[in-house]
């Protein structure tokens, strides 16, 4: 293939169309990544893990209570409650954002590939 998206033998005015599967995968991956990076901190905050601590009467408070009872009065470092509180207080770390974007981008791309193209089987064969 030569530069500019043309094949050898194409005339000056012809160009190859972009593969629709690539477009669908890119859109799916981009949307999933964006939603995950925005939604994750919002969901954690809505659960009650906030910058000022755990909100009283929230899901986070119930989780903290259960974790404290299970651990004899304290919340263990590295537990899910501790990690979620860290996210609620400081947001996602760069490494967490990269990991979340990688996983969600791949899943979004795979889901995007499943989006129907709007053409029936006969039209696709032509």
Automatic annotation (TrEMBL):
Alphabetized UniProt keyword annotations: Membrane, Transmembrane, Transmembrane helix
Q: Which organism is it from?
A: Gallus gallus (Chicken)
Family, according to the entry, reads as follows: Belongs to the IFI6/IFI27 family.
> Got a GO cellular component term for this one?
mitochondrial membrane
Gene3D superfamilies linked: 6.10.110.10
Record membrane topology: Multi-pass membrane protein
Q: Where are the transmembrane segments?
A: 25-51, 63-88, 94-116
Family matches, as Pfam families:
Ifi-6-16
Q: What is this protein called?
A: Interferon, alpha-inducible protein 27-like 2
> MF terms per GO, please?
molecular adaptor activity
Location(s) in or outside the cell? Membrane
